[in-house]
Amino acid sequence: METFKVQNAGNLAVKYKVVLKATQIETTTDGKSLLDVLEWKVNDTKVDFSTLGNGIEIITNKQLLKSATDEIKVSAHMKAGAGNDYQGLKTLTNCFSLIISHPLLKNIIVIIISLVNQ
Q1: For residue range 48-104, what is the model confidence (pLDDT) as tens digits?
Q2: Which of 42, 84, 90, 118 sits a CA distance of 20 to 30 A from 13?
């Protein structure tokens, strides 16, 4: 399980969303990938990430008050009946995009965090 913190060190409350995306997804000969057999949870809630390659908003329109901190917990576990077809497959890069906005700000702040699985 990975835990990420989103902290607002500014003087204004902001809204944010988090998008999770996987890239360089290896597949079996019949086109299946690890995304088909992993059970994902975000903050202990099951999430369907079978289309993770397209990017999925895991947190949407969340308000973060000034000086506040939120924790985001993401975990993935292999389904029990997955079998050996998926052995050796990799999803090489996972990318978290944090998009922060405020109605008074002209610019939207985008922070991209890339995690490389080894």
Answers
A1: 766 555 677 888 889 999 899 999 888 888 888 887 888 888 775 567 778 888 777
A2: 42
DSSP-assigned states of every residue in the chain: -EEEEEE--SSS-EEEEEEEEEEEE-B-TTS-BGGGTEEEEETTEEE--TTGGG-EEEEEEEEE-TT-EEEEEEEEEE-TT--GGGTT--EEEEEEEEEEE-TT-SS-EEEEEEEE--
| Residue 50, Cβ density class (10 Å: 0-12 exposed, 13-18 middle, ≥19 buried) | middle
Q: What is the Cα–Cα distance from 37 to 34, expressed in whole angstroms? A: 5
Token pair listed for 57: 């908003």
Kindly report the pTM of this predicted structure.
Answer: 0.71
20 closest CA partner among 78, 86, 74: 74
- Please report the sign of the dihedral spanned by the C-alpha atoms of residue 58, residue 60, residue 100, residue 56: positive
- The answer, yes or no, to whether residue 8 has pLDDT greater than 80, is yes
